[in-house]
Amino acid sequence: MTRMERGKPAGVATAGPVEKLDLPTRLRRNRKALWSRNLVREHAVTVNDLIWPLFLMDRQESRWPVEHMPGVDRINIDEACREAERAARLGIPAIAPFTYIERDLRDPVGSEAVNENNLMCRAVRAIKKAVPEIGIITDSALDPYTSHGHDGLLTDDGRILNDPTVSILCRQSVALAEAGADVIAPSDMMDGRIGAIRRALDANNLEDVQILSYAAKYASGFYGPFRDAIGTNQTLIGDKRTYQMDPGNGDEAIREAALDLEEGADMIMVKPGMPYLDIARRLKETFQVPTFAYQVSGEYAMLVAAGRNGWLDLDRVMMESLLSFKRAGCDGVLTYFAPVVAERLQTAS
Ligand code: PBG
What we know:
The protein is an alpha/beta fold and about 350 residues long. It is about 40% helix and about 15% strand. The chain has twelve helices and twelve strands. Helix 4 packs parallel to helix 5, helix 5 packs across helix 6 and helix 10 packs antiparallel against helix 11. The model has no long low-confidence stretch (mean pLDDT about 95). The chain binds ligand PBG. Ligand PBG binds next to helix 7.
């Protein structure tokens, strides 16, 4: 007789004689106590899995809240240095800054993107000086800098020009790397940009700078709060479906990643995260290279909103959502929860 059967069922009368099942395998045995669950667990989130996306701005005030991402602010360079210090203290390996560029600095061709004294380059230099040990991953794309909000050059008849955009991305990437960025993360989805950026970096003696390719980036509704944060939602003309991937496609993600790896990507990323876990799993199984997921702004907003309404236990679903990326095979996650999670992991251990 097992211990479980010996106990009386709480509060209910037994509904007559119970047939003893002849089961050699009872999966519940390993779940019977916390020590056993801890012992058999396959996956865990650690601080080394976290990349923290930050929003930068060029303003006097240190913080300006992002309305649709409670708990997330746009911050100025001084504050970014403090946040980078905090991240390093917590053991977060890398940060991924994005920029809110003032409207008068945006133009149709994104000229400010290649200015070596733009907000991002200045921030990278300041953070590298203040916190040399933290990794800095900078986005390569034109959307913060274009008046129309697209990641590339837009023609009068609404087309996005691939090859001319790639030349600008190369100059942008070299400027970022020269400012001290450790990793260039092209998020624009132009064809051939990984190879071109790799060659441009190498030609400038920047062969140690890594490339994290947004290999499978989908045309997603989940980017809404991010576009508010960097101020492109109001200005975006049309949508990004001629360069970002169709959400109905899976095989195409494999082709995208294969090309990016051939062209020299060191790491690949899937974005958004939770709605595309199947893609993360397929990429990891196909290529066995460092694979990341971006838990994007809309995913963050959903969880925080439900938590604030008392509909979900935020702490719990935050950890559970991150664990799903590990289970899918990801080596790490870009998440706005990074500092909160890192603090939680510290107190838990
Ligand atoms: C733009 C870029 C986007 C995100 C990261 N880089 C938005 C877009 O493609 O419109 C989204 C991140 C998020 O939603 O958290 N190159």
